[in-house]
């Protein structure tokens, strides 16, 4: 994974929180996890989860459940 790509994704995810206008920021990663196109975004979220304090970040995985 190229570090400057994931760094830019993380920077843009955190950009809204810089001005303190919002209490919560929700970022959705759409598509199919496992596709090579979404890999930098999934990696950026994984890195962000470890870089932020535990009480400031939550990652939720919602799998498809066809009936």
Keywords:
39% helix; mainly alpha; 67 residues
Description:
The protein is mainly α and 67 residues long. The chain has a domain at 1-16 and 33-53. 39% of the residues lie in helices and 0% in strands. α1 packs across α2. The longest helix has 13 residues, at 3-15.
Describe the secondary-structure layout.
Blueprint (H helix, E strand, L loop, with lengths): L2 H13 L23 H13 L16
Total DSSP E strands:
0
Which secondary-structure class do the elements indicate? mainly alpha
User: Which residue ranges are poorly predicted, with pLDDT under 50 across at least 5 consecutive positions?
Assistant: none
Overall morphology: globular
Radius of gyration: 13 Å
Helix content: 25-40%
Mean pLDDT: 87
Percent of residues in beta strands? under 5%
How many H/I helices? 2
Along the chain, the helix and strand elements come as HH
Distance between the termini: 36 Å
Main beta sheet strand tally, sense and closure: none
Short description:
The protein is mainly alpha-helical and 67 residues long.
């Amino acid at each position: 994974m190229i570090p400057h790509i994931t760094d830019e994704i993380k920077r843009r995810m955190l950009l809204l929180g810089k001005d303190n206008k919002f209490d919560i920021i929700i970022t959705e990663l759409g598509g199919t996890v496992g596709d090579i196109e979404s890999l930098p975004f999934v990696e950026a979220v994984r890195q962000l989860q470890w870089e932020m304090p535990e009480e400031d970040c939550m990652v939720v995985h919602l799998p498809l459940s066809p009936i």
